[in-house]
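Supplementary Data S3. Sequence and structure tokens for construct A.
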Amino acid sequence: MSVPSWPSMASVTTPGFGEIYLTLLFDKKQVLSTFTYEYPLKLIAPDTHKSATGKHVTVVFLLSYEGGLVGGDKINLKMSLDDHTRLALLTQGSTKIFKSPDAATVSHQVLDVKIGKGASLCYLPDPTQPFKASIYEQRQTFYIDPAGSSSLLMLDWVSGGRRACGESWTLSSWKGCNEVRQLNESLQGRLLLRDAVMLHEEDLGADLAQKTHNMGVFGTLIVYGPTFHELGVFIMQEFGAQPRIGAKAWDHGRAQTAVETATRSKQAAVDDGLLWTAANVRGFVVVKFGSTEVDGARRWLGSLLRRQGTVETEFGHRSLLCLR
């Protein structure tokens, strides 16, 4: 199945528009045949490297000139991964969402990615950091092979703002939606998974900081496909081994080692004020987590991915940059 092309844009100089097309050559090397961006979007692509498994991996850093989005900025990035290619999409720091001058001025970021047959995307950005009175909307859509051969690892997380400036969920509005759809020629494939988060002030007798119960960051991790199958299994096993309140170990001898390991992991999470859950939905492993501090979430998620090993083995140690 060839990857269908995106509809033509009216102007390639549309502010904030970018396009990436990763192509596999006959000698099994992959190149960025299309790599364009317009202010305020900025993209950086180091040289392609080989992973520990010998696969070619392309790394692209998603940036902005101001280190974030000023009120009213719009980012629209379209990406296509040709069959059997691999891409790690990263950032070099948190994406700051600056204050909006009024309620009608919204910062937007749209990401549309087509992942071809046997292709893999590792998308591990730093968290977005909404400043006081900021307004932000984000939509990310991933189109995958209907036969299930595409692979996707996607992290989406948001922090409570600048703690050093006394900010704690003082944003005006933050809305994010992640969708995974089947890839077809019409680009309107069947919806497989949708995850949405809305954070905004409401007249409910408590401000957003109170309703978040002292959490400093919330996040979602989506795991799918053959490249990340073992990672998904590992995460579900880790979650299943977590001690439950009121649980009784009926088979104490066989479960003792697993429980001891899970207890140590849980204690580390408790020390970082972290809560998490995981579920298997239509072949996707979806992880939801929250932590009192961003660094606590980094330590927990970084430890989880490093202990399992798939990300570093398949994409290289640089792919975990946001979790250092």
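Construct B, processed identically:
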Amino acid sequence: MGFHTGSSKLSGRWLDWAITAASCQGFLLLGYDQGVMSGIIGANNQFGRDFNNPDTKVQGTIVSIYDIGCAVGSLLSFIIGERMGRKAMILAGGSTMIIGTIILASPTTLAQLLVGRIVTGLGNGFNSSNIPAYQAELCPPQKRGFLLSLQGTVTIVGLCIAYWMDFGLSYVDGPIQWRFPIAFQALFAICLVLQMLPLPETPRYLVLQNKQTAAGEVLARLHGKNTPVDHPEVQVIKAQIESGIEIESVGGPFRYKELLRGGRLQNFRRICLCLGVNVMQQFTGSNMIK
């Protein structure tokens, strides 16, 4: 099993299901991590007593500093993601989440709690930036919209699990009341890492790295079991990927100022649409409530 090609035992529909399950696992983790603090912070509970009943300013810092970690993780993905690849970034995100959860579930000081929030935010920034692209580049075009929408649904499931976990343990006395709900997210992160290990890198990334043979092998396995690399449909899809990359590369290597231009690819329009959707989502105030 190569890192870029994954396990040869997975192919066809089983490979599609494995990719979908891993992608949903990442957003289940995202939803749980976003919701778990809402039932812990600000209440007259063990958490408040352990941290000297933090005032509203400190509570706001604990909540908002997580988003700073997410923003840094997303920006780092933008800078190094194309070099490392989707799979490596998702593995880094899951591993970072495990480390962050260990820090976050074992603090005795406010400083350690804040560091844990930043680290978990960093890991979720990696995941939320790379998982949608990973699944989109591996799934069939006709299923892309449905599968990406499924990630949002699973995020809500993660939120519900976090809320009920907080509610159930609110009846328990002692530090386990808040430490266990926070530590529980490590289970989702560990599952994400284990699920990603046997999966392949995306063909588009492999073509960008001039790993043509590996890209052909991954495309053949996505097509179906025992499909040869020289299968006509595999070659057509590979040629389409190469053609798309060639069009994007017209005029030389990518430059950041291209994001502010229109032209044939409408980069600026795409950026505005993405920014608009995310800004309007934040304007609802849902993240502050969570």
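The CA atoms of residues 32 and 160 lie 8 Å apart. The radius of gyration is 21 Å.
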